Amino acid sequence: MDKRLKDFFESEMYDEMYEEIKKFLLSCHIREGKFEGNEILLNKLNRDTVIVYQQYELKDGSYDYSRDAIVCHIPVLIKQLEEWKSL
Questions:
Q1: Which of 15, 23, 25, 27 stands 20 to 30 A from 47 (CA)?
Q2: Which alpha helices (DSSP H) does 1-87 contain, by range?
Q3: Are 78 and 25 in contact (CB under 8 A)?
Q4: pTM of this prediction?
């Protein structure tokens, strides 16, 4: 598993957030859109693909997103989420 995804799971995956992220990713009613977590942004491009960005704070207090985003196939990401959650 990509270290950045592992870090994302560790920072964002408490029970309530886990369920909300799964709903967002699996919803057939959300074809594309963004889900903002505490430290991540999920950008759903279509029903099969999502880009995971890490959010970070700039010196001036504003926020920006990483340039080295992770492109994921949603079914694969869901499987990894479920495996991580069961640990």
A1: 15
A2: 3-12, 15-26, 74-85
A3: yes
A4: 0.82
